Amino acid sequence: MTDSPDAPDAEKLASDLKKPELQALAEVQGVDIPSGATKATIAEAIVAQSTPSLPVIVDGRTKRSDDDALEGGWVRVVDGEHAGRRGALLHVEERGADGYPTRCIIRTRDAMNQLLSVAYEHLRPTHAGR
Questions:
Q1: I want to staple 37 with a disulfide (CB 3.0 to 4.6 A). Which of 10, 41, 73, 124 is the partner?
Q2: What parts of the chain have a pLDDT lower than 50?
Q3: How many structural domains are present in the chain?
C-alpha cells in the first residue's frame, strides 16, 4: 500500500463495492482472479496490482549491490551486444515494477561518442572512462 490518502484500500473496496463490481474492476485492470474468489480476495488482488512503486534513483544509498551502476556515473557494459564499451549513464529509459532501472541510455567514451540503449543488468560502475 502507499501512504497516499487517495490510495485504494482493500477493506474499503470490499465494503463499498458489490462482488460483480469488483470482478468488473479486476477485469478492466487486468487482474487475474481465481474462480470462487471472495470479495476480500478480489479487492486485495486489485490493490496489490494497482499500488505503484516510485522511481528509484540509484545512488550510494539505494544501490542493491556493488554491481548496481549509479545514475549519472561512469559505467562499463559487461554483457549483450555492446559488451566492452564504456560510457556515462545519462538517463533511465525504463523501470521495473520495483522502481529500479531496467534499460538506460549511455553515452560512450570513445571515438564514436554514441548514445546506446543498454539493459541495466548489463551495466557495472567504473571510473571515468577506465
A1: 41
A2: 1-6
A3: 2
Query: Which residue has 490518502 as its cell numbers?
Result: 5
- Residue 79 within any structural domain of the chain: yes
Residue closest to 28 by CA, chosen among 1, 6, 46: 46
Among all chains, which residue has been given the C-alpha cell 560510457? 87
d(CA 117, CA 77): 11
One-letter identity of residue 123:
L
Q: Residue 3: inside a domain, yes or no?
A: no
Residue 52's pLDDT is 61
> Is 114 a member of any domain?
yes
Residue 75 sits in which domain range?
A: 53-130
Output the CA–CA distances (angstroms, integers) from residue 8 to 4, 16, 92, 124, in the order listed.
9, 11, 28, 38
Q: Output the CA angle 107-108-112, nearest 5 degrees.
A: 115
Beta strands in 1-130, from DSSP E residues, in sequence order: 74-77, 86-95, 101-108, 115-119, 123-125
Give the separation between CA 20 and CA 23, rounded to whole angstroms. 5
pLDDT computed for residue 31 by the predictor: 85
pLDDT for res 88: 95
pLDDT at 53: 66
